[in-house]
UniProtKB/TrEMBL annotation:
Domain Cytidylate kinase positions: 6-212
Binding residues for ATP: 10-18
Subcellular location as annotated: Cytoplasm
Name of this protein: Cytidylate kinase
Species name: Macrococcus brunensis
UniProt GO MF annotations: ATP binding; CMP kinase activity; dCMP kinase activity
HAMAP family named among the record's database cross-references: Cytidyl_kinase_type1
Any one cellular-component term (Gene Ontology): cytosol
Keywords associated with the record: ATP-binding, Cytoplasm, Kinase, Nucleotide-binding, Transferase
One Pfam assignment: Cytidylate_kin
Keyword ATP-binding (UniProt): yes
Amino acid sequence: MKKINIAIDGPAAAGKSTIAKKVAAALDMVYVDTGAMYRAITLAYLKSDDKDFERLLQDIDIRLVADNGQRVLLSGEDITERIRENDITENVSYVASQGAVRSFLVELQQQMTRDKGVVMDGRDIGTTVIPDAELKIYMVASVEERANRRQLDNEARGIESTVEQLKEDIAHRDHLDMTREISPLTQAGDAIEIDTTGRSIEDVTAIILKLASDKL
Ligand code: C5P
């Protein structure tokens, strides 16, 4: 079977990681959640007294471990759950707007996709990280639906939130991600848009698997 890369981009909480994980499992591909990498750097940034990004990145040790999804280690410590908390979500778009942070992570992500066989989700995957990906998806959903889904997620994780607050936070984060100077969130010209509003995880996964089968 031919090896391909699949890029899945879109705004916050559109269902990218849930679906990307399922697509990767079905096709025996490696799943990479790049948002978790920006979140890991945000945690390191918040913990550090030195707020210089260049210096922070010199010593950073982020590792991704495939585990029925992806676990994230920062200097050997498992921070998979920690990076979903509110302080990280509130600060991640600022950290992700820094040129030094983006160059560092894009380089790392490009190394991971060099041998193909990767399903990668994020904001700039189809436009910047893997512009030659064989399949590019741009996943969207209404703010209401995204806030409701995130609320259920948060409840399961024991993170406090309200749907109203989540709607505001999601819209604000999208705005920051879409208007930043370097690699803003935007749909690649050759990406296929899928609106997941009112669609089940299974439906959307099936649509992407069908699109992928045409490339394999
Ligand atoms: O996907 P997730 O919501 O966890 O991403 C967290 C944040 O990381 C985004 O809001 C965005 O600021 C940043 N990000 C990015 N580029 C990516 C992935 C995530 O700028 N490829």
